[in-house]
Design a protein that fits this description.
CATH superfamily of the largest domain in chain A: Periplasmic binding protein-like II
Radius of gyration of chain A: 22 Å
CATH architecture of the largest domain in chain A: 3-Layer(aba) Sandwich
Number of strands of chain A: 11
GO molecular function, one term (chain B): ABC-type sulfate transporter activity
Main location (chain B): membrane
Subcellular location (chain B): Cell inner membrane
Function (chain B): Part of the ABC transporter complex CysAWTP (TC 3.A.1.6.1) involved in sulfate/thiosulfate import. Probably responsible for the translocation of the substrate across the membrane.
Shape of chain A: globular
CATH superfamily of the largest domain in chain B: MetI-like
Number of strands of chain B: 0
CATH architecture of the largest domain in chain B: Orthogonal Bundle
Structural class of chain B: mainly alpha
Keywords (chain B): Cell inner membrane, Cell membrane, Membrane, Sulfate transport, Transmembrane, Transmembrane helix, Transport
Helix content of chain A: 40-55%
Number of domains of chain B: 2
CATH topology of the largest domain in chain A: D-Maltodextrin-Binding Protein, domain 2
Largest sheet of chain A: 7 strands, mixed
Structural class of chain A: alpha/beta
CATH topology of the largest domain in chain B: MetI-like fold
Number of helices of chain B: 14
Strand content of chain A: 15-25%
Order of helices and strands of chain B: HHHHHHHHHHHHHH
Order of helices and strands of chain A: HEHEHEHHEEHHHEHEEEHHHEEHH
Shape of chain B: globular
Oligomer: heterodimer
Radius of gyration of chain B: 24 Å
Largest interface: A-B, 29 and 29 residues
Distance between the termini of chain B: 11 Å
Strand content of chain B: under 5%
């Protein structure tokens, strides 16, 4: 009586494990995994489809691109912990450098592999406010006023949040003539106005747009436009502050993983094609700023006002390698100024 | 559990007089509060889930459920439950058997250990597996060298689920088996049955309803677990997303219909569990009551 039952159970177990095996092998040579950050979901959904068609036409091979999205810092952490990414397309250089230094899976010279410091698109940080801008928010100093609720994600886990922070820092620095104590106070006040810090940029957008919390969302330019598309332009207004940051979300091949899986050729083609006419057009249509706008038809280019954009490589920040530990490391400036709301 | 006490008090009451029960308005008020509370916190959210899921019609609903990523999430969730629930049955029965029927050193410690997953936050449970099996973790190097993928793959999700659902079956069976004592088993053994026969024909039938109850709860949690699974999943669409994770992804993509369509399946599972549980309680109330020691 007992034995047939156990045999059945064993049979079922073997059957499931065999299924795993075949599943793993069936896609093994034609699948790449793109580990990306939050707001690129729509961009890569469109790009992956186009690239798969392009690759099929060019080589006759079928490639499946898998996507994983989350806060940029959290995604880098997952790759360090062994998430089998072929390529990473993260929010900032600092997160890719973390993979380089903590896991050695990416070669240190990754920034030279693709054009424009391996940033096929740029973006900036702008404000999304409630329709009619009831709080009259036009510039960064409007965010530190009493009674203004600011929605921004956590710079510890979100790349977008770090750009938000740095944009505020750049504004305050220019405004108080480079007095760092005053800059710190300004940014501290801004975070004191934040009732909640989500882990990723998309979480913050949902908090602001869907849950209706806060007066202003500090957002990726593309995410702000996407929120307008999704929730209707009659609910929100986009506000461009006079100064902001030039965000350059970079891409990189995860060398150790592609060499182990034998997917280097397709992974390199995948990232390289981002710089093509087709890739740049998809980028522009998803409200990112293409690195090579001359490749894109003028009607597809985003119509964005001219504002002053400060680069992370500006002497104020001295590049990500310096800015990351100084501002966001353990005990860094952010830790000093941010006290969670009581 | 409460039955014997009520019976012992009964002789002291002449009848159901107004002196010993609450006044009618008080009773009505209490009942209204209870129903309003349940309505707002349980029924309303449930209705909203189905309402949102069907907001754009049945067509959109079925379309979101037939989306390849949604189907893969459903398949993965079923697979994870199909592996972790049987594992829990084996573990739960053996642990309950050992604790209820034998005296040994460290028994209290074992009982505490079984309860551990209840007291640890699921996120921590997930992180423990990252520290253990992650590329930087204790066993990460060895696993990589042997080409074994645990973290950010199905085995990691199964492990995390098994961890958080560990106590369900054991916790149902331990009080039940303790209450039943060793009498039946001793009788079977003295009549010449061997160990397996005793277990199969005596112990198991004695606890079958408690076991089924534990399995139901375990299954519901296995399919619904979010925190621990989220940490070890890697969030690869169509590959390592379970249903709860897929709900979050769709919601973050502003796809409310899709998110709530998948959520409605989970809610449906909860309802089925609830109905089965109620049926079990109605039919085998006395036996199950014995398991309600905690």
């Amino acid at each position: 009586m007992t034995k047939p039952h156990f045999r059945k159970l064993l049979g079922a177990l073997v059957a499931t494990s065999v299924q795993f095996g075949t599943l793993g092998f069936a896609f093994a040579d034609t699948t790449i995994l793109n580990v990306s950050y939050d707001p690129t979901r729509e961009l890569y959904k469109a790009y992956d489809e186009a690239f798969a068609a392009h690759w099929k036409a060019e080589t006759g091979e079928t490639v499946t691109i898998q996507q994983s999205h989350g806060g940029s810092g959290a995604q880098a952490r997952a790759v360090i912990d062994g998430l089998d990414a072929d390529v990473v397309t993260l929010a900032l250089e600092g997160d890719i450098n973390a993979i380089v230094s903590k896991s050695k899976k990416i070669n240190p010279d990754w920034r030279t592999k693709f054009e424009n410091n391996s940033a096929p698109y740029t973006s900036t940080i702008i404000f999304l406010v409630r329709k009619g801008n009831p709080k009259g928010i036009h510039d960064w100093n409007d965010l530190v006023k009493d009674g203004t609720q600011v929605i921004t994600p956590n710079p510890k886990t979100s790349g977008g949040a770090r750009w938000n922070y740095l944009a505020a820092w750049a504004y305050a620095n220019a405004n108080d003539g480079g007095d760092e104590a005053k800059t710190k106070e300004f940014v501290g006040k801004l975070y004191a106005n934040a009732p909640v810090l989500d882990t990723g940029a998309r979480g913050s957008t949902v908090t602001f747009a869907q849950k209706g919390i806060g007066d202003v969302l500090i957002a990726w330019e593309n995410d702000a436009y996407l929120a307008l598309d999704e929730f209707g332009a009659d609910n929100f207004d986009i506000v461009y502050p006079p100064t902001s940051i030039l965000a350059e979300p970079p891409v990189a091949i995860v060398d150790a993983n592609v060499d182990a899986k034998g997917t280097r050729k397709v992974a390199e083609a995948y990232l390289g094609w981002l710089y093509s006419k087709e890739g740049q057009t998809i980028i522009a249509k998803n409200h990112y700023r293409p690195a090579k706008p001359d490749l894109v038809a003028p009607e597809d280019l985003p119509k964005t006002p001219e504002i002053k954009l400060i680069s992370i490589d500006d002497p104020l920040f001295g590049g990500w390698k310096k800015a990351q530990p100084y501002h966001f490391g353990d005990g860094g400036i952010f830790d000093q100024i941010y006290k969670p709301a009581q | 559990m409460a039955d014997p006490e009520i019976k012992s008090y009964e002789p002291y009451h002449e009848s159901q007089s107004a002196a010993v029960t609450e006044s009618r308005p008080a009773r009505v008020a209490l009942m209204t509060i209870a129903f309003a509370f349940l309505g707002i916190f349980l029924l309303l959210p449930l209705i909203i889930v189905f309402n949102e899921a069907l907001a754009k019609g049945v067509g959109a609903y079925t379309q979101s459920l037939s989306d390849p990523d949604a189907r893969s999430a459903i398949r993965l969730t079923l697979l994870v439950a199909a592996i972790s629930v049987p594992l829990n049955i084996v573990f739960g029965i053996s642990a309950a058997w050992a604790i209820a029927k034998f005296e040994f050193k460290g028994k209290a410690f074992l009982t505490t250990l079984i309860d551990l997953p209840f007291s640890v936050s699921p996120v921590i449970s997930g992180l423990v597996y990252v520290l253990l099996f992650g590329a930087q973790g204790l066993l990460g190097g060895w696993l990589k060298a042997h080409g074994i993928a645990i973290l950010f793959a199905v085995p990691g999700i199964v492990l995390a689920t098994v961890f958080v659902t560990f106590p369900f079956v054991a916790r149902e069976l331990i009080p039940l088996m303790q209450e039943q004592g060793n009498g039946d088993e001793e009788a079977a053994l003295s009549l010449g049955a061997n160990g397996w026969q005793t277990f199969w024909y005596v112990t198991l039938p004695n606890v079958k309803w408690g076991l089924l109850y534990g399995v139901l709860l375990c299954n519901a949690r296995a399919m619904g677990e979010f925190g621990a699974v989220s940490v070890v999943s890697g969030h690869i669409r169509g590959l390592t997303n379970t249903m709860p994770l897929h709900v979050e992804i769709l919601y973050n993509e502003y796809n409310a219909v899709g998110a709530f369509a998948v959520a409605s399946l989970l809610a449906g599972l909860a309802l089925v569990t609830l109905v089965l549980k109620t049926l079990l309680e109605m039919r085998y109330g006395a036996e199950i009551a014995a398991t309600r020691g905690h």
